[in-house]
């Protein structure tokens, strides 16, 4: 079955999966019409090819109309200005008129070209009208017969049409040609049979040629559609993988509860900033923020409420430290912040601003509205320091001093251990 089409498709298919899917019910093709058996697939295909088919049909119609008009000249030279000539001319003009109307319809609605009904109608009118030539110019019956043979073949090839309809029109043309020739001059049965076989020849070759083209075009369409579908699937998969990878990266680098950097990630970022600060001899400060009496929140409102407070404070830190500052969760209710290009005094101002923001931001947890405060210990990198551990230790000492002194404050600690308390 359709070996040429299948060979082409198997050449085009790069893997067995494609070939298998092309054999699905969606893509099955009628053996004699050369169209998809599935009406939805056929409609989609016709829509896909409607504009190019309409263009081809318009060209075909234009050539047909031109030939009809041009052949009026030999009519005139043979018949002169006679009733027979006028009759033939009227027939030619009527058919040209029908062709013109079809041309306009197809230009307005390209789907008429693939639908084929109007085309078939005009072809029937054209063929029937052409039979007049047999009666009015019996002296060239042989030539007229040859022209009919060409027309029958052309029905399939030159004018894109639906195969079933083209076959019906061609058979109709073959039969009325026989009838007309018999009426012009009665013929023996054998002669009629021979003429009929001759008429069937262009019908059969035209049908086979058009069928092969139709099947090939549809197979290619099926292949293209499958390729587009698998491309889309592939794109979706790539997008899903990208999102998954992003999610995994986020999970690997952030703290699940607060969304702040986890220890592994902030240590990596801190190391990078430390190296940059030493290389460029820029100031670098570090802060530890610890919520005050957080245990009470848990004890009074429950652990879930405590979690919510941690999330809100984390967001507040993200919003109120600068974009260049690196905020991480040190553990429990403690956060650590690295402030690049920032002296201790500047870091103190930023920290105070954050504390102030915390004071004026009530945190709603269920029915309760909580007022949370925090204590911050801050220190600055010294020119001879190569590790952040000593900074963390100093900031921690400052933090504990702040807690001991009454909490809700910023404590700055110098390298020599001297401290300065900033109370809001
Ligand atoms: N809800 C919640 N609580 C946590 C989490 N991590 C630590 N905690 C709690 O945080 C509380 C910390 O308590 P403490 O170390 O005594 O500190 P504090 O109550 O804030 O008191 P000060 O720091 O001295 O002001 C403990 O009750 C921990 O259980 C967490 O992820 N979620």
Automatic annotation (TrEMBL):
This is diguanylate cyclase. Its cofactor is Mg(2+). It is found in: Cell inner membrane. It catalyses: 2 GTP = 3',3'-c-di-GMP + 2 diphosphate. Signal peptide: none annotated. The keyword Transmembrane applies. It comes from Halopseudomonas yangmingensis. CDD domains: GGDEF. GO terms for biological process: cell adhesion involved in single-species biofilm formation; negative regulation of bacterial-type flagellum-dependent cell motility.
């Amino acid at each position: 079955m359709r070996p040429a089409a299948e060979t082409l498709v198997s050449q085009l298919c790069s893997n067995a999966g494609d070939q298998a899917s092309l054999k699905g019910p969606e893509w099955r093709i009628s053996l004699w019409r050369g169209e998809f058996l599935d009406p939805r697939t056929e409609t989609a295909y016709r829509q896909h090819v409607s504009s190019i088919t309409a263009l081809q049909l318009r060209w075909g119609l234009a050539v047909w109309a031109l030939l009809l008009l041009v052949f009026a000249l030999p009519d005139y030279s043979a018949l002169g200005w006679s009733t027979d000539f006028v009759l033939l001319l009227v027939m030619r003009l009527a058919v040209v008129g029908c062709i013109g109307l079809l041309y306009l319809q197809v230009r307005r609605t390209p789907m008429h070209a693939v639908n084929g009904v109007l085309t078939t109608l005009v072809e029937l009118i054209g063929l029937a009208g052409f039979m007049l030539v047999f009666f009015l110019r019996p002296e060239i019956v042989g030539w007229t017969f040859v022209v009919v043979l060409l027309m029958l073949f052309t029905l399939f090839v030159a004018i894109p049409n639906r195969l079933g309809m083209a076959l019906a029109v061609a058979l109709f043309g073959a039969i009325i040609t026989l009838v007309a020739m018999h009426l012009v001059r009665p013929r023996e049965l054998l002669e009629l049979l021979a003429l009929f076989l001759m008429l069937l020849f262009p019908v059969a070759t035209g049908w086979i040629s058009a069928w092969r083209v139709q099947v090939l075009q549809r197979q290619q369409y099926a292949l293209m559609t499958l390729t587009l579908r698998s491309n889309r699937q592939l794109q979706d998969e790539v997008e899903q993988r990208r999102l998954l990878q992003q999610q995994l990266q986020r999970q690997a680098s952030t703290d699940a509860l607060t969304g702040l950097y986890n220890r592994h990630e902030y240590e990596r970022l801190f190391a990078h900033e430390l190296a940059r600060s030493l290389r460029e001899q820029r100031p670098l400060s570090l802060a530890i923020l610890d919520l005050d009496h957080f245990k009470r929140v848990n004890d009074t409102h429950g652990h879930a409420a405590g979690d919510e407070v941690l999330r809100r404070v984390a967001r507040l830190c993200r919003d109120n430290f600068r974009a260049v500052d690196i905020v991480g969760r040190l553990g429990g209710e403690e956060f650590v912040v690295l402030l690049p290009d920032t002296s201790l005094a500047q870091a103190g101002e930023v920290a105070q601003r954050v504390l102030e923001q915390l004071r004026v931001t009530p945190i709603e947890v269920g029915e309760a509205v909580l007022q949370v405060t925090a204590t911050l210990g801050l220190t600055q990198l010294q020119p001879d320091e190569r590790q952040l551990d000593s900074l963390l230790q100093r900031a921690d000492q400052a933090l504990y001093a702040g807690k001991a002194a009454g909490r809700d404050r910023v404590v700055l600690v110098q390298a020599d251990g001297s401290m300065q308390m900033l109370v809001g």
